[in-house]
TrEMBL record:
The chain crosses the membrane at residues 28-49. It holds the Pfam family Glutaredoxin. The lineage of its organism: Bacteria, Bacillati, Actinomycetota, Actinomycetes, Kitasatosporales. It comes from the Bacteria. This is Membrane protein. Residues 69-126 form the Glutaredoxin domain. Keywords: Membrane, Transmembrane, Transmembrane helix. It comes from Streptomyces spiralis.
Amino acid sequence: MRAWILPTLLVLCGSVVAAGLILKGNPGTAAALLLAFLALAGVNSPLIFPRSIGAREAQRRSVVDGRPVVFWRPGCKYCMRLRIRLGRSARQLHWVNIWRDPAGAAAVRAANDGNETVPTVVVAGRPHTNPDPEWVRGQLATSA
């Protein structure tokens, strides 16, 4: 439920701002602003990214099924690019939100010289920082 707090607040704030603009006689501006708030809410919602799991659980599952682990964080445009370009196949990966999982953040820092650079994709125990989405798709195909 906590994952829906920010998107809900964005929709409510956008609605209030749009209502105020409509009352002032600016329906065009109100519609544009409401669309912007809705887009921000969608990008920050759990609808974009598959459900995150803990780093240890993701690594355990990856050993069993061979699928890559993706370490990401909300608001990261490179994570968003990876997620969108992977399309439906993104649901087959194991996603770890480093802002919610300290072990995930530690794994990313260990792989990136102390930096929390995301997305970091771990394939067969080897980390790859901000890889090309097509490469990730290929890795997913070879793990299946």
